[in-house]
């Protein structure tokens, strides 16, 4: 039987859409930040997704490593040519870049990742954030128009986390007014930067600065890697450069390695907005050494929305599939049900829908805070930098981890078909799990937040003023236990009490160990499980609180029918968080067994209430099929036809008898006759 797509929508999905109690278009408007933004998003998607030059003829799954790279670079060039043309028509703007680089439109047009992403996400922002005005004038124009392509080369084979331990050196030579770059050991080779392999001809290189025989710590330098005309690595063997080989995911990103052998760059190539080296080699310190870390903070902030985007794709696929897939009757006398009717399936899928909403709201919050704090930094005000660092670190850690767990859970929620590349869930997982490691490995980031929380706790103990994100510690000092209150505000207070007590215990355990004679650093390491967990608890309380506060006036901005469903998801998120941290709530919040049973009931009630709206809700994320790229998640729900059509594309299916039969199987099978 020839397999064709039916031109109609799967009847189960049709029924789901009829059941929806709110207006899906209104939801899409709310989710995407209003009518204008939604219209712009759709226009942009049409422009890129319908462009005949940007269609995927062969799935990348059947390409070789080299082909994936070449295909990806070709496509990236087409994409940016289009963006350039839009800019020339005055239709530029940051939104186009954010969309084309991120996990929504970006992942729809370049599934395996964009080898030029780090140019925009890190190379350019570092010049902007850390270059002087003259350096910006010199570099930004050519970089914006992509006449040069850059990457961010910080991590080395031996060090990614502990960046003070980086080994690449930049030694100032006052005679020639140059820095000499060297990679003195194998572990000092740069390793990982996106696009470094073969796609960049410049890099921001983070190296230990030496001048007048003294080391001044790590600083950023702009270094040319390849000839602009021939693309050959510069000056023969003095730059050794290549790509690091196949990875779990992000297969098209061309992550590379790089070593230097006495490579000279002019003095003006050290980014000198903060620290400076004068002609004679005199070093002038930055107002704060952590300003060098600014680009990492920027990326940690933008990752939050990226995770919301990837998770929204995965959950759209799993929700639609769960409505189409029928398996096992509940009542043996009745037909098999849609798997979405099994309550355990709802429990796998709906909390992940809730997370998309929470992460999206958090992305707005943290982006606004980032912009406020960076505009203060430009005026020389550094006071709020530690708070932004602390909250962005734990949010990046918790949200990438939850998104990664969520995508994996949703893959499993799609049974065997979720394991197929055609579901697009394996590839999505590869993209998302990478974010748990890049831009600061998650445990490290939790420990950074914990470091801040320890200071905040000691300030709270002596009654000092606290910044908004940790203000709750003051109340917790006065009141160590609570009466369980199941309202959302009660849940927020309970989660804050959990966080505060975990912070208190971690603090006390560090202090106790110090009293036993351990150094501060050893005491901190010995207490680091509790420290990381305290940062996690702080972040969870923050997520529920900020989502609640950001939707306080929901009823005045959207219809009652939409507000009702959004509130159900926010409540589901709060209740599910409680269920996950039940032991901690028992320990610290006055939660009783009755309270737990009530929470369980409430969780189940919420799943039941959400059930008829689930498909409509994910439709409201407004993700085109070409971005979902999934046989299981397409709008029409023609799952089986699409799976078959994808399987037919396998090169093995182009010939009924495989070459391997004559070559191996036949001789083998007959060899013992
Ligand atoms: C549309 C967009 C889509 C986005 C998609 C992105 C796609 C791109 C894909 C991948 C790109 C990936 C890129 C990379 O991975 S680049 C490399 C990233 N590397 C890291 O993140 C390294 C992690 N390590 C660190 O950040 C640091 O070394 C450290 C924080 C772990 C420790 O640093 P150290 O110098 O040892 O500091 P201390 O612990 O001693 O702390 C000193 C002091 O400074 C504070 N601090 C640290 N970092 C910052 C910061 N960024 N901003 C502000 N303040 C910071 C720290 O808290 C201490 O403060 P103190 O307690 O008051 O002393
Ligand atoms: C897909 C991808 C893209 C990347 N892109 C770039 C890029 O463009 N540019 C760039 O410069 N880098 C890039 N990186 C590198 C990335 O930033 C680092 O891999 C990351 O910061 C983690 O560092 P690491 O690999 O040294 O891990 P390690 O620090 O070696 O981590 C190994 C283990 O040790 C633990 N550990 C280490 N130190 C401590 C500590 N102090 N306390 C407790 N536990 C500790 C960690 O928690 C982890 O469990 C990329 C990485 C990936 C995976």
C-alpha end-to-end distance: 38 Å
Residue-averaged pLDDT, rounded?
96
* The level-1 CATH class of the largest domain: Mainly Alpha
Tally of individual domains: 3
Radius of gyration: 27 Å
CATH-scheme architecture of the largest domain: Up-down Bundle
CATH superfamily placement of the largest domain: Butyryl-CoA Dehydrogenase, subunit A, domain 3
Strand content: 5-15%
Tell me the number of helical segments per DSSP (H or I, 4 or more residues long).
Answer: 26
Number of strands: 11
Give short descriptive properties of this protein.
about 675 residues; flavoprotein; AcylCoA_DH/ox_N_sf; Acyl-CoA_oxidase; fatty acid metabolism; alpha+beta; Acyl-coenzyme A oxidase; 11 strands; 6-stranded mixed beta sheet; binds ligand LUC3G6IP; 26 helices; binds flavin-adenine dinucleotide
